[in-house]
Specification:
The protein is α/β, with parallel strands linked by helices. 44% of the residues lie in helices and 11% in strands. It contains 14 helices and 10 strands. The strands form 2 sheets. Strands 1-2-3-4-5-6-9-10 form an 8-stranded parallel barrel, surrounded by 7 helices. It has a two-stranded antiparallel ribbon with strand order 7-8. Helix 3 links the parallel strand 2 and strand 3.
């Protein structure tokens, strides 16, 4: 099966653009759902990505190295009947970000080792992101420094890929993206990347890659990360406005081998996603929106179990998650603001979905397992489905 990433620019130029969803989650139920969708859609490939903070050579916050992440996904795929060849693994924001509190030389050495580990593990889509300043540097670096560091990372990737054998990596460049995981405040408007800035990013990367002997590798740069004007805050979503990004779309006519990668496309409407694809943003990254939907389903089932199962308790899962989040507030405290009621609502229901970091907590895992156990084989009345999970089709049969 042909890698769909390699045909995105050609399809756009030919007037028949298509998009690909990038699944940015390490939650096993999200991965399983994406794989089941791919199994049903027999003529497509599945793109699954891991970020530098989530998965790296030291384990990241998931505790998984790149090879363990690949094995984790492939084990689920094997259970569900999806051939490994139909999965594309991508590495997102690969650069010094996890070690930005260290001196640049140290942080970049670790970033090079991380990129090497990703390529050896079988990741073939590599986002080179060296935009962040390290210890003693400005928070935002100049274009030349960013491109030079991206070239260093590309060299590490190329060396690993050639030693490993097989297909050489495809690259994503560019750094102007929404805040990872969504903004931490209410949003009213968002300005897309200026076309001149996007052009400059492409030109400086092309120039420095050529200077470093990476001209052939630059030929495998397939996309540029830009801000198309989409984002979500804790409680609201900025919808895509095609007219605001017309200049970006026009720029692609000067760059026939490139398309754009759009981050934070979570919660956009079908029409907005279709417009993004049509306008040159065919790589659609989604993460928190997937675990948000998972939380909606689990909390709906939690309410159903409270109604149907004697002794289950009142919102047992939600109460457990509240205790878990209060006991370890590191993943949400600096992201949510307001009084106690507001903080409670954001912890559980925010679009930025910081609760996603807590599902792997042992107490949370036990609570989810108990919920699934008490409802296994139970016929849920259509009326309860309509009450607590109204967006799902009723009459699904036993849970």
């Amino acid at each position: 099966m042909t890698n769909p990433l390699t045909g995105l620019a050609t399809a756009r130029r030919g007037g028949s653009p298509y998009g690909i969803t990038s699944i940015c989650s390490a939650h096993p139920l999200v991965i399983q759902s994406a794989i089941r969708r791919a199994v049903a859609d027999t003529d497509s490939m599945l793109l699954i990505e891991a970020t530098c903070n989530q998965v790296n050579q030291f384990g990241g916050y998931t505790g998984m190295t790149p090879d363990l992440f690949v094995a984790f996904v492939q084990e689920i795929a094997s259970r569900e009947g999806l051939q490994p060849s139909r999965i594309i693994f991508g590495g997102d924001h690969l650069g010094p970000n996890p070690w930005r509190s260290e001196p640049a030389a140290q942080a970049m050495a670790k970033a090079e080792a991380m990129v090497t580990a990703y390529v050896w593990a079988g990741f073939s889509k590599i986002h080179l992101d060296a935009s962040m300043g390290c210890a003693g540097e400005p928070a935002a670096l100049d274009d030349e420094t960013i491109a030079a560091r991206a070239a260093r990372l590309a060299k590490a990737a190329e060396k690993a890929a050639r030693a490993k054998g097989g297909a050489l990596p495809l690259y994503i460049i560019g750094t102007e993206v929404p805040v990872p995981g969504g903004a931490d405040h209410a949003l009213s408007d968002l300005k897309p990347t200026e076309a001149a800035a996007a052009r400059r990013t492409i030109e400086i990367h092309r120039e420095i890659f050529a200077r470093e002997g990476l001209g052939e590798a630059f030929g495998r740069v397939i996309a540029l990360v830009v801000q198309p004007g989409v984002e979500f805050g804790s409680e609201n979503v900025i919808a895509y406005k095609p007219e605001a990004s017309k200049a970006l779309t026009a720029l692609l006519d000067e760059q026939p081998s490139l398309v754009y990668e759009a981050h934070s496309t979570d919660y956009q409407s079908r029409a907005a996603l279709a417009a993004l694809v049509a306008n040159g943003f065919p790589i659609l990254k989604v993460g928190p929106g997937l675990t948000f939907a998972l939380r909606e389903a689990l909390y709906g089932l939690d309410l159903i179990a409270a109604e149907m199962v004697p002794g289950y308790g009142d919102r047992s899962l939600a109460r457990t998650m509240e205790r878990v989040m209060l006991a370890a507030p590191g993943h949400w405290r600096s992201h949510y603001h307001g009084g106690e009621t507001s903080l409670y609502l954001q912890r559980h229901y925010s679009y930025s979905d910081r609760i996603r970091y807590y599902w792997s907590n042992p107490a949370a895992s036990v609570a989810v397992g108990r919920l699934r156990e008490v409802l296994t084989g139970v016929d849920i009345p259509e009326t309860l489905m309509r009450q607590f999970l109204p967006t799902l089709p009723a009459g699904l049969g036993p849970a």
